[in-house]
Specification:
Elements lengths: L1 H17 L3 E6 L10 E4 L3 E7 L7 E8 L5 E12 L5 E8 L8 E5 L9 E3 L3 E8 L9 E10 L10 H39 L14
Parallel strand pairs: 1-3, 2-4
Antiparallel strand pairs: 3-10, 4-9, 5-8, 5-10, 6-7, 6-9
Helix pairs in contact: 1-2
Amino acid sequence: MKTCVCVIVGFVLMCVSAVRVDVTTVSLDGLDSVCSNAYEIKEGNELHLVSKGMVPKSMCGVRLNVQRSQNCRGVCFNLRSSNFADCSARLVTTEIHFGEMVSDVIRAESCKESMEVPWCSSAHTLILDLIVDDTATNPKYNFSATVYPRCGDDVVYRPPSRLAMEEKTKMTLIHGIVVGICLCFAFLMLFFAAWCYYKNHPNRGYTMSTVSKA
C-alpha cells in the first residue's frame, strides 16, 4: 500500500510541475523607479504589465528581454484589457530586431488606433511605452497586458491562463488518483490470486520421500 501511495504522490507532483507557469506582475503606477526598468523573461515565465491611469510621468517605458533558448524563438504580446477612450494616453510597443534583416515594428493602442492581439514576433527585445498627454488635467486610461516567450511551433503561442492551469491541475490530480487506485486494485488482485493458488496447492515443488537403509 505504501508503494501505491508513493506512486500516486510522485505522479501528481510530476504533472503539476509540468503545467506550472511563473507569473510576475509589474504596475507602472506610482513608482518612478519602475519606468525605464528592464525585465528578463525566461521560458515558462510571463510578465503582466498593468496601469490604472496613475503613471507618475508623461512617458513611462520598460524594456522587455526574452531569454533565448532552443525551444523559444521570440516574444509574444497580449493586450488583455484596455481603455483609452478619452484620448489622454497612448500605448506603444516596439520590436527590436538585433542583427536581423528585419525593420523594427511599431504597434499602438489608443482612442484612434487598435492593435490586433495576441501577436508574436521573432524579436527577443520589446520596448513598451505609455505616453500620457501633458495637457490632460485628469487623464482616464487603463490597460493590462501580458508578455511571454514565443515557444513551440505555433505562430501564436500563449501559455495557459491561471484558470486553465488550475483546471488542468485538478484534472491531473483526479487522473493520478484514479491511476493509483487502479494500480492498487491490480496489486490486490494479483496478491489474492497468488494466495488462492498457494492455498489450493500446499504440496508444490519436489515430493519429499523417506529413504531407508537396505
